[in-house]
Amino acid sequence: MSIGHTLLGLLESGPRHGYDLKRAFDERFGHDRPLAYGQVYSTMARLLKNGLVEVDGIEPGGGPERKRYAITDAGVTDVAGWLATPEKPEPYLQTTLYTKVVLALLTGRSAAELLDTQRAEHLRLMRELTRRKSGGDLADQLICDHALFHLEADLRWLELTAARLDQLAAQVTR
Amino acid sequence: MTGAAAEPLLVARDLRKSFGRTCALDGAEMSVRAGEVVAVMGPSGSGKSTLLHCLAGIVTPDAGEVRYRGDRLSAMSDGARSALRRTDFGFVFQFGQLVPELTCLENVAMPLRLAGRRRRDAEAEAARWLERLEVAELAGQRPGEVSGGQGQRVAVARALVGGPRVVFADEPTGALDSLNGERVMRLLTEAAHDTGAAVVLVTHEARVAAYSDREIVVRDGKSRDLEHTS
Ligand SMILES: Nc1ncnc2c1ncn2[C@@H]1O[C@H](COP(=O)(O)OP(=O)(O)OP(=O)(O)O)[C@@H](O)[C@H]1O
Ligand SMILES: [Mg+2]
């Protein structure tokens, strides 16, 4: 996820101080991993340099968290462009898992067991998300559902791979 | 934990079952503790439904045994087994287990009527279950007049109305879209947890299985249950 674009987007509704930006980010998007202050300031420094934000005022007392930032016209255009561009569907996990499965087959270890272990781990996380979803508000539900659908896709791939292990083994060990 | 509490409610050991030349179960094991929701997963044709039917005493295995609260199902008379299914088990299937000629309220009241409860009593209880499953407004409708998702919620109400110790659900969301499927799962698992009923949930969908407490996987008629106590 692009933190720069996200912070920029948060500034669209009006100027904010650094600490306020961090709080807003954590509240809406932080969930499991709140932003580090250092990350906020390095990101804001970059946005400042690129002319996407400007300093709108500094509170007495100094320190970077006292700076108030405002989005520029170029910044608004940048957020719009980001929102209009679809995300690349990343086959992030499959590459790692595929590598492991093939390695297991090559080294005579049980690929089926590896896949079963992975499926149990996937399902464990899906349970946790399902529980979080039932206790949560609509935003939680939508965020959890997104993760759940992705994990489900991974699981379907695991099932399919499990069903084709003999075929795959014949190919890679040929 | 005391011995009694730790003892599983339902235990299947080394089940084998063939239909003609087709081997449906080839060494399946599974245990279910009171109040837990166990998903039975696995590819199509792997033997999930056959395992569920054996656990529920609908199908008699060729070999192996199923014990319910310590008693062997195969040692019971047919009459005792069907009485057990009525009093202790509830069922939800993928389609059409509601009686089309009866209203939804009468369908849900039926298990209580069969158990000898007076009509007014049974229907009042059934109405409470319809409300709990968020389909109170369907009381007077017939199953043919309600949507698939609504019908499944009525079926869940009927499965739970008699206070079963085990609910057997075979692909209860198989014919539903994901939103309705999840609603059925949420209501089923919440109601089961509240009443202390265990659920045996057959599904090949991971998002449905994610409502369970744990899962077992059936492949080629075989299953292992790591929770199994022998
Ligand atoms: N009554 C029956 N008569 C003949 N064969 C049967 C019968 N019931 C099941 N089988 C066969 O036994 C095997 C296991 O069937 P089962 O219905 O238990 O699978 P399943 O895992 O529930 O599949 P699905 O996910 O498609 O529902 C299959 O090959 C099936 O064709
Ligand atoms: Mg089946």
UniProtKB/TrEMBL annotation, chain A:
This is PadR family transcriptional regulator. Pfam families: PadR (PF03551). It comes from the Bacteria. InterPro entries: Tscrpt_reg_PadR_N, WH-like_DNA-bd_sf, WH_DNA-bd_sf. The lineage of its organism: Bacteria, Bacillati, Actinomycetota, Actinomycetes, Kitasatosporales. Residues 7-76 form the Transcription regulator PadR N-terminal domain.
